[in-house]
Each structure stands twice: as structure tokens, then as C-alpha cells.
Amino acid sequence: MVDLSLATxxxxxxTGLVLGMxxxxxxxxxxxxxxxxxxxxxxxxxxxxxxxxxxxxxxGLTGNFWxxxxxxxxxxxxxxxxVERFLVRPLYGRSIDDPLLLTFGLSLVLIEAARLVWGxxxxxxxxxxxxxxxxxxxxxxxxxxxxxxxxxxxxxLVALWLFLSRTDLGLVIRAGSRDPLMVQALGIDLGRIRLLxxxxxxxxxxxxxxxxxxxxxxxxxxxxTVVIEAxxxxxxxxxxxxxxxxxxxxxxxxxxxxxxxxxxxxxEIMVFxxxxxxxxxxxxxxxxxxxxxx
Amino acid sequence: xxPRFASRIGAHPVLAFLVFFGVFPFLAPYKALxxxxxxxxxxxxxxxxxxxxxxxxxxxxxxxxxxxxYGAGIALAKLGVGxxxxxxxxxxxxxxxxxxxxxxxxxxxxxxYFAMLTLAFAQLLYFVVFHLADLTxxxxxxxGIPQLPARLPGLALSLDGSLAFYxxxxxxxxxxxxxxxxxxxxxxxxxxxxxxENGDRAVACGYDVNRVxxxxxxxxxxxxxxxxxxxxxxxxxxxxxxxxxxTSGQVVMMTLLGGAGTFFGxxxxxxxxxxxxxxxxxxxxxxxxVIGAIFMAFVLFLPKGIWGTLTGGxxxx
Amino acid sequence: xxxxxxxxxxxxxxxxxxxxxxLRAQTREAIRVGFPLPLTxxxxxxxxxxxxxATLAVEEVNARGGVLGRRMEVLFRDDQLKPAVGAQRTKELxxxxxxxxxVGGLAAHVQMAINEQTKKSRVLFISVxxxxxISARPDTSPLTFHEALNPTITCRAVGSWVAQNLGxxxxxxxxDYAWGKQCNAVLTDVLAKHGGTxxxxxxxxxxxxxxxxxxxxxxxxxxxxLLSATPGADNIAFLKxxxxxxxxxxxRIAQPLQWMPVTKEGGPDLYAGIYAGxxxxxxxxxxxxxxxxxxxxxxxxxxxxxxxYSSYGYSGILELARxxxxxxxTDSDAVATALRAHPEYxxxxxxxxxxxxxxxxxxxxxxxxGREPDxxxxxxxxxxxxxxxxxxxxxxxSCAEKGLA
Lengths: 294, 317, 405
What we know:
Chain A contains 11 helices and 2 strands, in the order ααααββααααααα. By secondary structure, chain A is mainly α. By secondary structure, chain B is mainly α. Chain B is 74% helix and 2% strand. Chain B has 15 helices and 2 strands. In chain B, strands 1-2 form a two-stranded antiparallel ribbon. In chain B, a hairpin with a 2-residue loop joins strand 1 (150-152) and strand 2 (155-157).
């Protein structure tokens, strides 16, 4: 039987938190891109993968983990700008399926390109010495690196929230997610905003990748299942709601973490069970708005 | 291939279908590939009924393909059903029932939420089948499906040869295509397309929109289930991946590639996708890169899909 | 480029691609062997190893004049690690390319789909995948041969050695699919036979490499040995997480099977001190003549020593050649009968033989341990050989247990 002592439970909650943070980074990016651009970005998992590989590359180049941490997301973000400008932009005004098919094709290309460039086996890179220890949290020893992931993600989310709620640009982005037509009618050029938002979404995915790399290893297929889970998180949180994406990401992270402890065989399916339950009870997800995208 | 020729084909769809697929095994690189195109074409046609004609995007259509396959497979391999028709029939019933149940639950929501619910149920089904390993073979797949002949009064047609199996499948797929054509041309079909164009208006006109949607879902699932049953007979083994979201994704890609909302689009898409993948993977190990690039090119240059572009969007959205 | 000309160009390209390959000029006299394997996907590195081993074997065969005076040809096809694709590729190889034999499969579930097609077409199939089912009812057939190890053999061999040498208080972590479940069942059984204690067993969904949840519990139980059936990239994630909790210092870690490419990817820091079973490690050439010849030939051809899966590919092809020579025919039934009539062979690591009832190859395997980073010899000298486990039919299920006479 399962030993559900307080210590085990607390460890579980922390583990779920780490898992949740990665989900949140991915879901927020996806939600931004979907909210403003109405693009279902199937390549999001590949951007996550690129973040991990770019992190490995920069680490190999400089031997400095911090350079990887900052550089990899920026590289992926820049790549995202290129993708929006040259591949996604031509598709505006067309059917909603087109970006789906395009980003799907793009993900195939990116995965194969990664294997061609970095080899088929996959690569590893490790966190710096300082973060390689286990920290005594009182109820258990917990890897310092994972606490670091929680910290970094929280900081980035706070920065993003400040940007979206306190700056003019942020205001336009939020408005554009709600009602792109109205924003355009007000004379604001959405083209540059779309570019920026795709870039930010890509950057967040890249950050998730470079953070996850040292925990799980870096290999070309690492983004494939992750993208589906990220979509589930976005839908559970409610399309177009960033707060929903954060809430859902953390919630699902914790649920999966606890399931792993109590009923390990169910942990893979739990994500879908949660989604089905939430959607059947709340039509537009946790914090989504009724009428959006129906 | 000019738009006029394409529209000529569009005017006599069933005839064109039979003529083309009658000779297709001799055009395709090898016969097993031709059969695969036929089967996945049918799967895509079923998906397209729901998506292109009714306007409902399903991310979990592998569930009905899988139910059809496992239904037929379990009937033939485990329950001792001694007839090909019995196996296929059971598979069809399983798929249609699954469609009715899952459709009923999912149709309570719309848009992307509907799509994700269909995905959730498909994954649930995958999980259940995966863990009922004694019945279904689990992740090793269901093996041991016997190679039975197709029995008609007075005849027993052996399905051992590739060509024989192809024409057997063609007969069944042809019947399904005829059935679909009749449905689409009927008043029911008109209501379907009315719902797709403007659901609220259809309600205002007094149509029972929910009932029509559910019926469409069930019919779509049945077509997918027939395809699944045929695939089970073809391979005599049912991989668990038949139920996985990657299979659902494949059928979406095939339909979009060919042109959603067109009658032949799904077949064209299935043929393109499968032949390309087959031939490219023989030429190079990096074939996913080439296919991905080709997809992107198609999307950028052919917004209505291949067939959609050719017909100039006669049936297009 | 406008849409119409784009379509025309693509149509022309597709037409060119769809011309049946049999129309192209080709020699029909060669003996053709189909080889489906996962050239794309997470195990493509292993597939490339299989390919190299098979290629070396074919070149050796052709260099000595071929088989029955005919050249041998191997046609590799990507099965994408999917059973449906594996089945389709096998059909293509048999129908279109007219191969006389099939060797291959890497994933257990794919090779069973391949096997269904070869059985239907009455083509001899030598599987190089790790699977218990392929050599048992209902999957096996007189034309189904199994060259590689299987979970029962590896887990009994490694499990017994671990129980006798490392300790008898175990915790098992295993992937929740056929191979992992079989490993868990066999390891549990072996432990019971040695009078040990199973403190716990933890399944996890394959590909979902998050173990941190379980590690504190495992630590608290204080096992002597932590056994892991975690394939591929999961293995690296598992060991990283275990290391980050400091567990390598608290208990021994053993795994029934370890793959060389994964070992290299993880690196000596990660794999130092980890015990595992393996079908072949090139340093055994020091004591085995056929291995010395094999390693030298492989080195000369590819510049690196042969790995675990290269050897399956190598041996599989050479056995086919031997069978055809013995049968003086390319008829699959004749070749199968000939191999059963002359079951012993030695291509690269010592004596191997086919068991008559299930066409299972019995062969030596080794217990290895990862070398400390400062003791590593060159790029591939990553392991210490700890023990040789000689081939033994008792390591596998008996013919009766497999449903065969």
C-alpha cells in the first residue's frame, strides 16, 4: 500500500510544482499565440526541443550554464520571429486549419533537422555544480536544480504579467487577444504585435526546453508528447485566458504528480481525464470566456 | 488536369471513383500500398463527413477506426466468429456505438473544446485497450486474426492474394462511397451543410440541429470503423497505435491536404500522403524533413488542398 | 510560381516517384533480404548499428563469392517503430522487391506485425528484437527465427548474478509496457527463488521519464539494489534523477539491459558503477577468437568497434547465408529445415545454437559495469566486463511453457 506520510506528500507537491511550471511556460506561450493570432501552433513542442538543443550548443561553446539559460530562449524567440514573418503571416485571413497544417509540417522539419545537426542519439548537458546538489527541505532531500526551475519560472511569469498589465504594448496585446478587429479598427498595426507575440511565445517555449534539458536529457522527440499536454493545459485553463493557463498548468502538474505516487499507471491518462471532467462541467475551461471560439 | 475536367469528375463522383480505383493497383508502386490508400481514404472520407460537411473538427477519430479494427479482430480471433462479414459487421457496430456515446458527450461543447473532448475520449479508449492486454494484446497488438475467405452464396473468394484483397476492399469502400453520396444528396445532406454554414440559422429554421449533428457523427464513425475493420483484415494484426492520437492526426492531415469539404479530397489527400511517405522513405532516411517541407509548401500555395484547388472550390468551403 | 504550375510540378514529381521499382534496371539473380528497422524515431541510433552490422556481413559474404554463387543484397526500409508501417514495408519488400528472406525489427510490437506478414507469405524471418512472444505460441512458426536475447533470458541471467553478488533486498522500477512488465515479472520470480525480499515495484508510463516522485520512498526503504527496466532516453533521465538524489552512493544500481549508444550519450559520469547485462561488448575480443576477427573487420570497415545491436544484424545475415548454403536452395522452408538440422554456429562471440522447438538462438551474454570516467579507454571503452553468463536453455522458458512440444 502507499505510504502517504506528510513527508512523501510534501515531496510530491514540490515535484508536481516543478512539472506544473514547465506546463505553465508552454501553455502561456501557446495561449498567447492562439489568443492573438488564432494560430494552433503545433510546432510549439519543437520550439521547446530547440530551446534544449540551443542550450546544449551554447553550453558547449562557452562552458557557462547561465549563458545557455539566457541565450537559448533568445535564440528560439528570434527563430519564432522568422517563423511568424515568413511562414505564418501569409496565412492570415485564411481558414483556421492552415496554420495547423503548416506548423505540423514545420515540426516535422525541425525534428529531423535537429537529428541531422546534433545526431540521432540525443545529447546531455548538466546543471552547474552549485545546483547539482540535493537540498534539505526538512521533510526530504530535494534536487536544488528543480527548486531553481520553480524560481526562474515564477520570476519570468511575474515579469510577463508586469509587461502585459503595466505597459501600453501589453495592453494592446491583451486587447488584441480579446478582439482583434476592434483593435485594428482603432488604427493599431496588428502585424508588428503578432510578430512580437509569436516571438514571446517561442521564447517561453525555448526557456521551458532549456530548463527541462538537464532534468530529462535532450533528444529530438522530446517535444512530441509535451505539445499535446500543453494544449490540454491551455484548454483546461480556458482559451485566451493567461491566468487560466497558469492555474491549469499548476493544477495539472500537481494532479499528475500525485497520480504518479498513488496510481502510477494512470499518470499518463490523468491529463485527459482532468480535461474531460473540467470541460464537461465548465464549458469554456476554468477561466475561459463563454462564446470565445465557438 | 483543368478545372473543367475536374468538375466533370465532380459531377459523376461514384463512376469516377470506381474507374480510377479500378485501375489504381496497376498505377501504384505496389498493390499493398494501393489497398492502404483505399482504406485510409475511406477513413478520411468518414472524418471529412464530420469536419468538411458538418463543420465539426474531431481530434479523436482514431477511436472509431480502432473500434472497427478491434471489433472485427476480437470477433475473428477471440470470439471465433467464422465469417469475414461477421467480423466487419461487429467492427462497424462497435464503431457506430462508440460514435453515438462519445458523440453524445462531446457534442455538448463546440469548437476547440469539442475537438479536445474527442481527443480525451480517444486517449481514454487507448488507455483501456492498452491495459486489457489479455483481450486485446495490449501494446503488442492483437495478433492471430485468421485469414478467412469472403463467403457469398455459392462462392468462397480467397483473400490471400494482394489483388484479391484489394478488389474486395474496393467493393466495400465503393458501397460506402455510394451510400455517402446518397446521404449528401439527400435532404439530410442539405441540412448538414446548412448547419455547417450557420448553425444558429438552421436552428431558427426549425431543424433539430443536435440530432442531425449526432447522426452525422455516428455515420462518420461507422465509415471510420469500416476502414478499421478492413485494415485489421489486411494486416491480420492490429497495432495499439491505431487508437493513438497520431493516427487521429494523420487522418486530419490527409483530409486537409486533399481538401476538406470536397468529395474526393480525402482520397486525394490519402493517396498523396501515403505514396509520398512510402516512396520518400525508400529514398532517404530524412524523409520526414522532405514531407514536412512539402506540407508547408502545399499550405502556402494551395490553400484549398489539392483537390479543392483543382475543382476551383466547387464543393469548397 | 502560380498554383497551377506548382501542382503540375508536384504531379510530375509524384508520378516519377510512383513508378514501380521493379521496372528499373536491376539484377534479379541476387539473393535479396528485406530488412525493416526504425531508421527514424527514438531508436534510430540502434537501427543504424543494426544496419552497419548487416552491411558488414553482406560484404563479407559477397567477398567470398556470395551464396550458391549468387550475390546477396540487403534492402533496408524504415519501419518508423510502428507496427502498421513495419507490416506495410514488409509487404512492399515481399510483393514489390521480391525479397526471399526478411531479417529485422527492433521493437517487439513491430516485429510481431512483420512476422504476421512473413508467415502469410511463407518467407523466412529472423527477428533481431528483444521479445518473449516471438518465439512462443501463437506468434512463432517454423519460419520464425529469433536471433536476439529476450527479457526472460536477460532478467534471469542478470537477476541471478545480482542476487548472488550484490544483495537480495531489491526495488524494481520498470516501464509499463510488454518488455518492462516481463522484466518485472521475471526479476520478481528470480528474487523469490534466491530467497530475497522485494521491497517494492514501481511502474511508469514509457516515455514519461519523471521519477522524482518515487525516489524518496525508494530511499527510505533502503534496498541493496535498485533494478531498472527503463529503455532508451528514459534510462538517462532515470539515472540523472537518481544521481541528483545522491542514491548512487546509497545502493547498487543494476539493469537487465543497457544499450551502448545510450551509454555513450549519458556519459561515463552517469554510467560509472552501474551494472547491466549486454549481448556483446567489443573488449571481449581479448579472450574470444571469433570476436577478435569480427571486431577487427568492423573497425576496419567503419572506424569504430562494433556495438550490441551491430552484432545482431551481423549474425542474422550470416545465419541466413549459412542456411542457404546448407539447404542449397533459397526456398524458405528448406533453409529453415537446414538451420534446424545444423543448429550450431559461431559468427562473433562463441558458440550459439538454435533450439529445435522454437527456433530460439541461445548465446552467451555478459554482465558489465560502467567504468569510472578516469578509467575510460577511448571513445567506446566505457565498460568493465564483470562476468560471462554462458548460453543455457534453462535461462529461457521451456518448450512446453511456450506452448510448443
